[in-house]
Please model this.
Amino acid sequence: MTRKKLKIGKYLKIASGFSILEVVIAIFIITMGLVGILSLVELNLKANYINKNNLIASMLAQEGLELVRNKRDYNFKNGLAFDANIAAGTYAIDPENMTAVTGGISDPAARLKYNTAGYFCHGNWSGGLTCNGANSPFSRLLTITKTGGYLNVRCQVRYSKGNSNYEYAVQNQLYDWK
Model:
């Protein structure tokens, strides 16, 4: 049996690895894939924040309308005119407070805070729930206009994410149905 000797050049050709150019190209392709995935994750997190806050804003706006509706129903229950103690204007509203606001939705008085129980508020509530907590990201403004036999009530809620403002508004007419 005879053995063949391999030449060094032939051996190196058989056992050659990746060139530096191939490694750089592979790293570039992997990096581009990771950048794409990371940008999708960032977009998903932003969409999650916006969706969560849109839901909260819709509930805060609905609550604003319900608070005015409760005032109207209280008037009915006590034999008062349906719009007694409900003046036309722009207000910050809680279950126990209705404060006039002159500077629009950007007015600091329209900013909702957290009370000591963790609920949103503008002013202090009875029962020891003070509204001197941290600012929430939400501002709520209620606009009431009187037109004949009904109240036109519009509630606007705004929150911010970075330099972008997001708003949610609802509107309803409350009639003198009694």
In short: Residues 20-77 form the longest helix (58 residues).
